[in-house]
Write a sequence for this structure.
């Protein structure tokens, strides 16, 4: 059986230039406006607080729009991703912005070996990251391995409850069909297109993904010596997760058009390494 990383890497390699050219990532606005940060980091900023002077790493950084945004807020940032095409776009963006951000090509589970143990004040990971990983426990072990004592994890992610939804019926009811809990075998998807506006015709449509329940995520962090300091569920996500049933606001966040209080769509968790 082909390795899930190889399958997913060609998927992301193909999408990286399409994403960089899409108005949804707003790269030209980042270049044109010296104080601009990504919509994702702008959403996170009130909870994220002051990151000035922090040694930070952005895991699964993709094309680097959130990574350079952290740098614009004053952090000394490293970005890590397994997709060389994504990192090419990230390095090009950092260069256009005149920012000193170092990017590393590696699987997230190899981050400690590549970047060094207990070297960071902040581990940042954003929307759409952990679903590509088969083991949330290994991810939490990696986070703990990267953080210095007292260092902090900041993660906002799509809610596992959202990822159980198959579709929205004509009467507005949500259909739960997919696994909530982590499974040994991946969910295998073969779907055209991507989550941003693009005219690029994409050929690599196969992906392997995993859901991870909230209890599994928090327990994994606790098991690896992190103390949960904040957990907040949100009624929005930064992409149209349920097409035709959502409305976008002026922040670029999407919520259910009807009954938005029915389903958590994303969450933010913060944790500090204590042991």
């Amino acid at each position: 059986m082909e390795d899930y990383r190889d399958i997913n890497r060609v998927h992301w390699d193909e999408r990286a230039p399409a994403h960089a050219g899409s108005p949804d990532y707003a790269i030209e606005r980042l270049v044109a406006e010296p104080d601009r940060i990504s919509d994702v980091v702008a959403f996170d900023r009130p909870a994220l607080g002051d990151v000035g002077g922090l040694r930070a790493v952005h895991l699964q950084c993709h094309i680097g729009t959130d990574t350079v945004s952290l740098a614009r807020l004053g952090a000394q940032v490293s970005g890590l991703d397994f997709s060389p095409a994504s990192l090419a776009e990230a390095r090009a963006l950092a260069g256009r912005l005149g920012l000193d951000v170092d990017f590393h090509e590696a699987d997230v589970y190899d981050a400690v070996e590549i970047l060094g143990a207990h070297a960071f004040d902040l581990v940042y990971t954003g929307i759409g990251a952990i679903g590509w990983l088969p083991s949330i426990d290994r991810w939490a072990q990696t986070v703990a391995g990267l953080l210095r004592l007292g260092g902090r994890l900041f993660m906002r992610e799509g809610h596992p409850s959202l990822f159980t939804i198959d579709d929205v019926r004509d009467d507005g009811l949500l259909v739960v069909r997919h696994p909530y809990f982590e499974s040994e075998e991946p969910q295998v998807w073969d779907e055209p297109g991507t989550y941003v506006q693009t005219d690029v015709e994409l050929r690599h449509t196969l992906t392997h993904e995993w859901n991870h329940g909230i209890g599994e995520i928090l327990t994994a962090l606790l098991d690896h010596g992190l103390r949960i300091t904040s957990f907040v569920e949100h009624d929005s996500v930064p992409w149209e997760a349920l097409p035709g049933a959502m409305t976008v606001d002026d922040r670029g966040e999407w919520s259910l058009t009807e009954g938005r209080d029915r389903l958590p769509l994303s969450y933010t968790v913060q944790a500090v390494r204590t042991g």
Q: What stands out?
A: The mean pLDDT is 95. The radius of gyration is 18 Å. The helical segments are 4-20, 27-32, 39-48, 65-72, 84-97, 111-115, 136-146, 214-223. The CA atoms of residues 112 and 146 lie 6 Å apart.
